[in-house]
């Protein structure tokens, strides 16, 4: 991926996060902000921005801004995971630590396998919520 594509992808991703926040505030699924955010994340993902790939996956898994689609969500998280994206790895650990509604039950072993990866530790080591999850997995 070219450097210009990566920079453009990060810019588009940032725009998508702002739109997503506006969409969530409206508390109505598939509103204009959420749809544009989803499209921006997809566009940035196609340019090689794996944070955007992760954000897109999380939008589908979360289901607050757009209709929940776990299959699509995990597809995008898997793409970012294969690229060793810390945000994706942490997100997968978080999903398995807490579960998602009735669809995904907590799985501490899976959570631990993601949260213990060096990319996650390097990026999140100072975050209290990360340390709390890790310490509860050790007990």
% residues in beta strands: under 5%
| Order of H and E elements | HHHHHHHH
Rg, please? 15 Å
Shape by Cα distribution = globular
Question: What count of structural domains?
Answer: 2
- Helix percent band: over 70%
Number of helices: 8
How many angstroms does the end-to-end distance come to? Answer: 42 Å
Whole-number mean pLDDT: 88
Number of strands: 0
What structural class do you assign from the helix and strand content?
Answer: mainly alpha
Largest sheet: none
Task: Kindly list the characteristics that best describe this protein.
8 helices; 2 domains; 139 residues; globular
Outline of this structure?
The protein is mainly alpha-helical.
Written overview of the protein:
The chain is an all-alpha fold and 139 residues long. The chain has two domains: 1-83; 86-139, no CATH class. The chain is 74% helix and 0% strand. It has eight helices and no strands. It has helices spanning 3-25, 32-46, 50-62, 70-82, 86-98, 108-115, 118-124, 128-138. The chain is globular and about 45 Å long.
Topology:
Blueprint: H1 3-25, H2 32-46, H3 50-62, H4 70-82, H5 86-98, H6 108-115, H7 118-124, H8 128-138
Helix pairs in contact: 1-2, 2-3, 3-4, 4-5, 5-6, 5-7, 6-8
């Amino acid at each position: 991926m070219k450097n210009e594509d990566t920079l453009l992808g990060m810019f588009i991703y940032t725009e998508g996060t702002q739109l997503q926040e506006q969409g969530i505030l409206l508390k109505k699924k598939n509103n204009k902000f959420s749809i544009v955010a989803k499209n921006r994340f997809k566009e940035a993902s196609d340019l090689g921005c794996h944070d955007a790939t992760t954000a897109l996956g999380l939008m589908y898994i979360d289901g607050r801004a757009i209709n929940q689609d776990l299959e699509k969500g995990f597809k995008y998280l898997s793409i970012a995971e294969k690229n060793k994206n810390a945000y994706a790895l942490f997100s997968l650990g978080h999903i398995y630590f807490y579960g998602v509604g009735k669809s995904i039950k907590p799985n501490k072993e899976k959570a631990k396998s993601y949260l213990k990866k060096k990319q996650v530790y390097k990026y999140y080591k100072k975050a209290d919520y990360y340390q709390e999850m890790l310490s509860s997995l050790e007990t």
